[in-house]
Amino acid sequence: AADSRFDLVGLSLSCDEHLPRLERAISMIRRESRNQSVIILVGGRVFTDDASLAVKIGADAAPPSAPAALV
Q: N or C, which end of the chain is more exposed by having fewer CB within 10 Å?
C-alpha cells in the first residue's frame, strides 16, 4: 500500500484469535497508504458471525460476500 495507490483493500480472516494482528495491519495500511481515503473491506467467518467487528478493528465494512462488496 505504500508503493502503489489502491482505492480498495480486501482482507479475510477465519480465526478470531488473529483479530489483533488484523487490526494492526489495517492501521498500518491506513498510515502507509498513498491513498489516505483507501477503503478497507474485511471478510471471512469471523465477520460473518459478527459484522460489527469490522468497524471495531478499523475497517470500513464487512460485506456478506465478494459480489456484495462490488455493489
A: C
